[in-house]
Automatic annotation (TrEMBL):
It comes from Atopostipes suicloacalis DSM 15692. SUPFAM superfamilies: Nucleotide-diphospho-sugar transferases (SSF53448), Trimeric LpxA-like enzymes (SSF51161). This is Glucose-1-phosphate adenylyltransferase. Pathway: Glycan biosynthesis; glycogen biosynthesis. The gene is glgC. Keywords: ATP-binding, Carbohydrate metabolism, Glycogen biosynthesis, Glycogen metabolism, Nucleotide-binding, Nucleotidyltransferase, Transferase. Involved in the biosynthesis of ADP-glucose, a building block required for the elongation reactions to produce glycogen. Catalyzes the reaction between ATP and alpha-D-glucose 1-phosphate (G1P) to produce pyrophosphate and ADP-Glc. Homotetramer. One of its GO terms (molecular function) is ATP binding. It catalyses: alpha-D-glucose 1-phosphate + ATP + H(+) = ADP-alpha-D-glucose + diphosphate. One of its GO terms (biological process) is glycogen biosynthetic process.
Length: 381
C-alpha cells in the first residue's frame, strides 16, 4: 500500500501546566472554542491537506481522546486503506511500555508506518491551534531536496526560551539548533511540525537502538544528529495564526481571541473547515430575561442569566441571576443561580452551586477542574 506521505500526530502529552484541566484527560483532548477539542486542528489540517493516512499516538489519559477521534469519520478519515488509527504504547520484547520522547514514539510505530511504505513522514503536535496546508510545506521540502524540513515562525523574544530555536543561512538551510536555550540567539522557533524522508529517519532511529545511543527526542537527539552529519535540513517559514496553548494563560487568551469575528484564524472559512465530532444534543435555549453579548453559545446550552464576552461549550447551563464574563465554560457544566464568574476557565462536568463566586484577579485566570464542585454541598449533584 504505497502512500506518498503518512502523518503522525503526537497526542500523548500530559499538559501538566494546564493543571486541573488535564488531571483526567490528555492535553490534545481539552475543550476549545465551544465546539472543538485541541486535536481537531491537526486532524482537520491533515484532511484539508489531503493527507489521508494519519496515526494518532496517545499515551497519557487517552480515554476521552480515543473516544473523540474514533475511526476519523468526522474528519473524512474513515477509509478502507489508511484513515485515522489510534496508536497506543505497548509492551515490547525488551519490556518497554511507554514512549520516552517524541522520536521514540515514532520508533515504536515503525511497523505501522511501514505498512504504507511512505516516502515522507509528516510529524505533528496534537496540541496547537492553527490552520496550515501541509501540502505546501511538502512541496517546499521537495524543492529544497531536504531530508528534514521544520516549520518555523518568529516568537516574542521573552518567550523564545520555551521553544527549539534555530539559525538559518540565506537559502533557509538550518545551520544551528538549540532546544529551549536559556539565552536564545534568535527568535525563530520550531512549531513542532516536521517532514522527514522516512527511509533516512528510520535508519537513524534503528541505528541508534543497535548502537545503544539515545535517539528518543527530536529536539534533543534527532535534529542535533542530522546537523552533526551535515544532513540537508531546511526551515519552512509559516505565516499565519499559530498558538501553543500549553498554559492556562495561553489557553484562556486563545479562546478570547477566538471570539473576535475578524480573528486571523477565520473559523467560518468554508474552504478550510475545522471539523470535530458531531454530538447529538438539544438546541440552545436563551430565556426571555437572559442577556447575551459578544459571546459564543453552542448547542445544548440553557441560559437564564447574563453572558458577556464568553464561550459556552456544549450543554452548559447558566441559572437565573448569574453573570459570566470573560470566561470559558467547558462542556456539561452547570452554573446555578446568582453566581458571578469573571476571567475564568471552568472544566468539563463541573458544578457551581447557587451564589458561587469565581474571579480571576491580579492577572491570573481562575480555574475550576473537570467534575469539580464549587460552593454548596460537595456530595450534591
Amino acid at each position: 500500500m504505497k502512500t506518498e506521505a503518512v502523518a503522525m500526530i503526537l497526542a500523548g502529552g500530559q499538559g501538566s501546566r494546564l493543571g486541573k484541566l488535564t488531571k483526567q484527560t490528555a492535553k490534545p483532548a481539552v475543550s476549545f472554542g465551544g465546539n472543538y477539542r485541541i486535536i481537531d486542528f491537526a486532524l482537520s489540517n491533515c484532511a484539508n491537506s489531503r493527507i489521508n493516512t494519519v496515526g494518532v499516538v496517545t499515551q497519557y489519559q487517552p480515554l476521552v481522546l480515543n473516544e473523540h477521534v474514533g475511526n476519523g469519520e468526522n474528519w473524512g478519515l474513515d477509509r478502507h486503506s489508511g484513515g485515522a488509527t489510534i496508536l497506543q504504547p505497548y509492551s515490547s520484547i525488551d519490556g518497554e511500555k511507554f514512549f520516552k520522547g517524541t522520536a521514540h514514539a515514532i520508533y515504536q510505530n515503525i511497523e505501522y508506518i511501514d505498512l504504507y511504505d511512505p516516502e515522507y513522514l509528516v510529524v505533528l503536535s496534537g496540541d496547537h491551534i492553527y490552520k496550515m496546508d501541509y501540502e505546501k510545506m511538502l512541496e517546499y521540502h521537495k524543492a529544497k531536496n531536504a531530508l528534514l524540513t521544520i516549520a518555523v515562525m518568529p516568537v516574542p523574544w521573552e518567550e523564545a526560551s520555551r521553544f527549539g530555536i534555530m539559525n538559518t543561512d540565506e537559502s533557509g538551510r538550518i545551520v544551528e539548533f538549540d532546544e529551549k536555550p536559556e539565552e536564545p540567539k534568535s527568535n525563530l522557533a520550531s512549531m513542532g511540525i516536521y517532514i522527514f524522508n522516512w527511509s533516512r529517519l528510520k535508519k537513524y532511529l534503528k541505528d541508534a537502538v543497535d548502537k545503544g545511543t539515545p535517539m528518543d527526542d527530536f529536539g534533543h537527539h534527532v535534529i542535533p544528529a542530522y546537523l552533526r552529519n551535515s544532513e540537508s535540513i531546511y526551515a519552512y517559514k509559516f505565516e499565519g495564526y499559530w498558538k501553543d496553548v500549553g498554559t492556562i494563560e495561553s489557553l484562556w487568551e486563545a479562546n478570547m481571541e477566538f471570539l473576535d469575528p475578524n480573528h486571523e484564524l477565520d473559523i467560518r472559512d468554508s474552504s478550510w473547515r475545522i471539523f470535530s465530532k458531531i454530538l447529538n444534543t438539544t438546541p440552545q435555549q436563551i430565556m426571555g430575561d437572559a442577556k447575551v453579548n459578544d459571546s459564543m453559545i453552542t448547542d445544548g446550552c440553557y441560559v437564564a442569566g447574563e453572558v458577556k464576552h464568553s464561550i459556552l461549550s456544549t450543554n452548559v447551563k447558566i441559572g437565573r441571576g448569574s453573570v459570566v464574563k470573560d470566561s470559558v465554560i467547558m462542556p456539561n457544566t452547570v452554573i446555578g443561580e446568582n453566581c458571578f464568574i469573571e476571567k475564568a476557565i471552568i472544566g468539563e462536568n463541573a458544578h457551581l452551586y447557587d451564589g458561587a463566586r469565581l474571579i480571576g484577579e491580579k492577572g491570573n485566570i481562575a480555574v475550576v477542574g473537570n467534575e469539580e464542585r464549587v460552593g454548596g454541598y460537595k456530595d450534591e449533584d
